[in-house]
Design a protein that fits this description.
With 183 residues, this protein is α/β, with parallel strands linked by helices. It has one domain. It contains 8 helices and 7 strands. The strands form 2 sheets. Strands 3-2-1-6-5 form a 5-stranded mixed beta sheet. A two-stranded antiparallel sheet has the order 4-7. A hairpin with an 8-residue loop joins strand 5 and strand 6. The longest helix is centred in the first third of the chain and has 15 residues, at 3-17. The radius of gyration is 16 Å and the shape is globular.
Length: 183
């Protein structure tokens, strides 16, 4: 997916939901911080998105421009309507969002995760595909982890570094307390 395609999905999501602001939480949120990343980061045909103030409308996105829709068949990419609880994110992630807004979005806004938040959400998810995504950050040197982690208040502990590297860091079930969880 390209930045232009993400902007199209923001515009289409707005048309389907009549909402103004959206949050993009999946791997394609990289397009907010880096409009033209290496090709390895643009291979996905899907963007995970939800309306900021009405996440319950995400089902409309799925139905109208989701996987298998006429939109998907026409353009070759699609939006997956998700919710705020889809990604496990570190505290303060909202203050680091990257705004995507242009004439191509019809002035609508897509908020994309910062690279460190995207990396940490992939590491915390613990799925093979997410670990691969996190490793791609490291292998392409897009995310200078020591510098970025040391600058992030949430990331200054050994516990966070362990989670980022995929090592267990706590005994309890679920993510450690420094990750925001839905209430």
């Amino acid at each position: 997916m390209t930045r232009d395609e993400l902007e199209h999905l923001i515009r289409a999501s707005a048309a389907v939901t009549d909402q103004y602001e959206f949050v993009i939480v999946g791997s394609q949120s990289i397009l907010g911080a880096i409009p033209n990343p290496d090709a390895v980061f643009t291979m996905s045909a899907e963007a995970d998105i939800y309306p900021l103030t009405a996440p319950e409308l995400a089902d409309r996105i799925d139905g109208a421009i989701g996987e298998g829709s006429q939109f998907h068949e026409t353009y070759g990419y699609y939006a997956q309507g998700v919710g705020p609880d889809t990604a496990i994110l570190p505290s303060g992630w909202q203050q680091r969002l990257h705004r995507v807004q242009s004439a191509a979005t019809n002035g609508r806004v897509g908020y994309c995760l910062d690279l460190i938040d995207l990396f940490l959400s992939k590491a915390a998810a613990g799925r093979d595909k997410d670990r691969c995504s996190a490793l791609r950050f490291c292998s392409t040197r897009m995310c200078r982890l020591r510098t970025r982690l040391s600058g992030c208040q949430t990331c200054r502990s050994t516990t966070t570094a362990n989670v980022a590297c995929g090592r267990p860091s706590h005994a309890g079930p679920g993510p450690p307390d420094y990750f925001d969880r839905p209430s």
